[in-house]
Amino acid sequence: MRRAVADLREQAEQTYGSFAERGEQAWGRIRRQPQVSHAIATIESFTEKLDARVDHFVDDAHDAAQKAMAAVTRQTRSAGEKAARSTQKFAADAAEVVAEVADDASEKVARAGAEVAENITEAGDEVAHDTRSTTRKVANRTAPTSAPKATANHKPAARRTNRS
Fold first, then answer.
1. By C-alpha distance, which of 152, 153, 146 is closest to 67?
2. How far is CA 91 from CA 96, 98, 116, 121, in A?
3. I need a labelling partner for 144 at 20 to 30 A (CA). Which of 5, 22, 34, 155 fits?
4. Which stretches of the chain drop beneath a pLDDT of 50?
5. Cα angle at 90 between 86 and 95, to 5 degrees?
6. Is 15 helix (H, G, I), strand (E, B) or coil?
7. How many alpha carbons lie under 13 Å from residue 117 in its C-beta half-sphere?
8. CA dihedral in degrees (118, 120, 126, 130; nearest 10)?
9. Backbone phi, then psi, for 117, in 5-degree steps?
10. How big is the CA angle at 74 (ends 154 and 136), to the nearest 5 degrees?
């Protein structure tokens, strides 16, 4: 029984090999026909054109994303700077009010008021510094990693072909 199975297996392998060889020969003959070779060349030409268009669209999308990231970075920095300036102005105004009130109070209260005004000013400066620092960090994270590429030096991706 094993011998019969082995013989059948060997015969099947030989038949398959013969079919594969005949198929390769037939494909070679078909491929050499002018209509078929012209159709293959036409398809390859369209594929190359399509690849070039896709590359162009990908480059355009990449450039647009880079510009958007640059705009987000600019806006983040601008908003952070505005918040820092507002914080400093508010702290300075509060310190001025405290100093004015302290002028009207006794000498002891005046000294305490001056210290509080100084502390408020320092706190405002620290908050402004922290705001700028945080804004800078966030803006750096959203900043584009490189300038948009020039499309003049662009090489399209290499195509893979399966030719027999």
1. 146
2. 9, 10, 11, 6
3. 155
4. 152, 164
5. 150
6. helix
7. 18
8. -170
9. -60, -40
10. 110
Taking a C-beta distance cutoff of 8 angstroms, is the pair 72, 140 a contact?
no
* Rounded Cα–Cα distance for residues 106 and 47 (Å): 89
Token look-up 């005046």 returns 110
Is 55 in contact with 157 (CB distance < 8 Å)?
A: yes
CA dihedral 92, 96, 97, 101 (to 10 degrees): 150
Return the pLDDT at 105. Answer: 62
The first and second tokens of residue 79, run together, are 């908003």
* Structure letter (DSSP) for residue 34: H
Q: Maximum CA pair distance of the chain? A: 119
Rounded CA separation 164/25 (Å): 10
Reported as a single tens digit per residue, the pLDDT across 41-75 is 999 999 999 999 999 999 999 999 999 988 888 88
What residues contact residue 62 under an 8 Å CB cut-off, 6+ apart? Answer: 148, 149
